[in-house]
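input
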Amino acid sequence: MSLLKRPVILASGSPYRAQILREAGVAFTVQVSNVDEDLHPIDKPEPYCRTLAARKAMAVVPNVPRECIVIAADTVCAIGDEIIGKPRDPADAQRMIERACAIGMQRVITGVCVADANDLTTISFTVTSLVDMKPASKEAIAAYVASGDPMGKCGALSIETGGDFVQAWKGSYANIMGLPIERLIPVLLRLDV
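output
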């Protein structure tokens, strides 16, 4: 049984986002938006994520039944106002992790857009968590990169598998995984009428 009465569409192929929704008791189906994520950000990280999440949601809404609620999200890492996206290749992943470990702190920001397919009401927000990185050797980072895990992950790091590089984190752990469920559930309940 689902927490919500209305059908929910997750506009993401992320297994982490799906896991978070399942664990929260939300039944859903997946419909990936296929929106180009390789934008050249000219904005600060928070509005950039929120805008991209809205684009993903609006790409899916026309293709679903009107009774659906669509959830879309975009997660980036940021050092200052510089957006750190997904690595292009293993060398880029190595560089990203080395830099984050040397600087010591980065923000993980998720923009979320929830859209009501019936009346096109949208609710968008961002959540930011802090990740304090440990110093790490080039060899340790290279071994992690060789595992393939950093590819496709913002900042080239998954907190679930790259924990050896994380000293501490502050804020929402679910946000660091890619979906701030604590903030999302009240929004879903508000639209579930």
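quick obs: The chain has a mean pLDDT of 92.
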